[in-house]
């Protein structure tokens, strides 16, 4: 059973997660980001737990470690549809995009980024910006990015105007591990 309090899950069996860790369940309260329950291994969630008086250890970030070269995106631009948009604050959104293969994770390591292309600059050229997904490789068939919407941000304004089902392009450059 999952009950969320300000983004903290009170109970969750890791057996219900895709690619669950082997051995006895060591799940503890975890961070809920978008629609995905993430193992609580990030510093931000530690401070959230600390403020809420929770003293719970986290288990290792098994879905964050991915060797280079496994990203579903390659050096060619790939259009993907927006499938969800969640407002976290007046100017911050989590955008969820569908991957070309519904049974595969994005395959990107922690801290690696992908390039997004959309909108247009003052000269009419497409705008390209790097984004580091916030979803882990436990999420199959989709991925999430956390975006602050800037008033003059060409790409962020384009993303903000996207409706569910609209497409944006992404690619991954091998050296951008």
UniProtKB/TrEMBL annotation:
The superkingdom of the source organism is Eukaryota
SUPFAM superfamilies found in the cross-reference section: Riboflavin synthase domain-like (SSF63380)
Task: Report residues binding FAD.
Answer: 129-131, 146, 148
- Name its co-factor(s): FAD
Q: Which GO terms describe its molecular function?
A: oxidoreductase activity
The cross-references to InterPro entries, in alphabetical order and at most eight, read: CBR-like (IPR001834), Cbr1-like_FAD-bd_dom (IPR008333), FAD-bd_FR_type (IPR017927), Riboflavin_synthase-like_b-brl (IPR017938)
Q: Enumerate the spans annotated as FAD-binding FR-type domain.
A: 75-177
Its keywords, alphabetically, are:
FAD, Flavoprotein, Oxidoreductase
A Pfam family (short name) is FAD_binding_6
Quote the protein name from its UniProt record. Answer: FAD-binding FR-type domain-containing protein
Species? Rhizochromulina marina
């Amino acid at each position: 059973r999952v009950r969320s309090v300000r983004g903290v899950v009170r109970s969750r069996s890791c057996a219900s997660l895709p690619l669950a860790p082997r051995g006895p369940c060591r799940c503890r309260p975890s961070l809920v980001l978008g629609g995905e329950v993430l193992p609580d291994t990030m510093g931000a969630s530690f401070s959230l737990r600390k403020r809420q008086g929770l003293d719970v250890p986290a288990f290792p970030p098994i879905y964050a470690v991915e060797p280079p070269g496994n990203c579903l995106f390659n050096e060619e631009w790939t259009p993907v549809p927006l499938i969800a948009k969640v407002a976290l604050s007046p100017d911050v959104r989590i955008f969820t995009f569908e991957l070309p293969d519904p049974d595969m994770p994005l395959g990107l390591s922690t801290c690696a980024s992908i390039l997004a292309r959309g909108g247009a600059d003052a000269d009419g050229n497409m705008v390209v910006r790097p984004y580091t997904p916030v979803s882990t490789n436990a999420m199959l068939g989709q991925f999430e990015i956390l975006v602050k919407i800037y008033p003059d941000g060409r790409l962020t304004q384009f993303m903000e105007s996207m409706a569910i089902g609209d497409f944006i392009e992404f690619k991954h450059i091998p050296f951008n591990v």
